[in-house]
Amino acid sequence: MPSKIGGPSTKPLPSSVKLTDGRNYGIHPEGSKEGGKKVPKEKGASLYVNTRVADPKFQHVGDTPSRSPTTYTQGKDTFERYQLPKGVRDCAHHAEEVLHGAPLPTKHVGNRYALASKEKVTGEVFGYTNADNQGLSKAAKEKSPRTVDHRADPRPGEAYGIIRQEEPGKGQSPFHFAPVVARDGTQTVTSEQTAGTKDATARNTYPTMDMYRVGNTGESFHSRYANKQGYGEDAVTVTTQKWGPKTFNEGDPKPELDANPRPTKKQRTE
């Protein structure tokens, strides 16, 4: 029975919620059901956070998402439910907004476009062309093979990115990005969007929450998508970080690597 004594109500944690191993976070996996009915997309875009988790509790876009007045309990744990808002139906744009922690422009005049992320190993700007994305993913794998594919290891505020190594066919995407909003041990919790057939600009789609296990060949992000049904068995999974954002005209040269800042005294002595 829900309880309410001079404050917000408390209910048992829904059975459809999947918790991380450390019980710090929970999500409704895509397609999960409650009472025999599929969990609505709005509710599916929820992140359950154990009250013991310190601030910042998770990575998000803009202001902290609204929190339900109801708390949820399971055993000795109590969880708060945060409702993630609608976003743009574009995996890369959504990922870059999560990386930056803020909304980014979705509309550009004429042939102008924005670049807002970089690959972690090489430091190269992502999104210039499909061929360039393929090249930088291969370079990352050659330079640091233990930090890509199943071992891609993004932190909150970074993202998984899987790159198709051939030109996409009809109805295929050249890549998919999944920004990490929370982490519990080797488990990452992501908030994901999927692109449609046209460039999206409206914030009208709830994200899908998912969970992956770094380094696990059965539960990694790479294992989910590096197959014939996904982005190809030769696809490469990398980690991206925020960069820019900077706006360019189509056909402009690719931006140079970020200049390395002068190390601090502490960094020089480490």
What does this molecule look like?
This protein has helices spanning 41-44, 91-100, 130-143, 221-225, 265-269, and strands at 10-12, 18-19, 25-27, 33-34, 37-38, 46-50, 66-74, 77-83, 87-88, 112-119, 159-163, 175-184, 187-192, 203-205, 208-213, 236-249. A hairpin with a 2-residue loop joins β7 and β8 (77-83). The longest helix has 14 residues, at 130-143. The chain starts with 9 loop residues before the first strand and ends with a helix. Helices cover 14% and strands 32% of the residues. The protein has a 6-stranded mixed sheet with strand order 1-7-8-6-3-2. The protein has a 6-stranded antiparallel sheet with strand order 10-16-11-12-13-15. Strands 4-5 form a two-stranded antiparallel sheet.
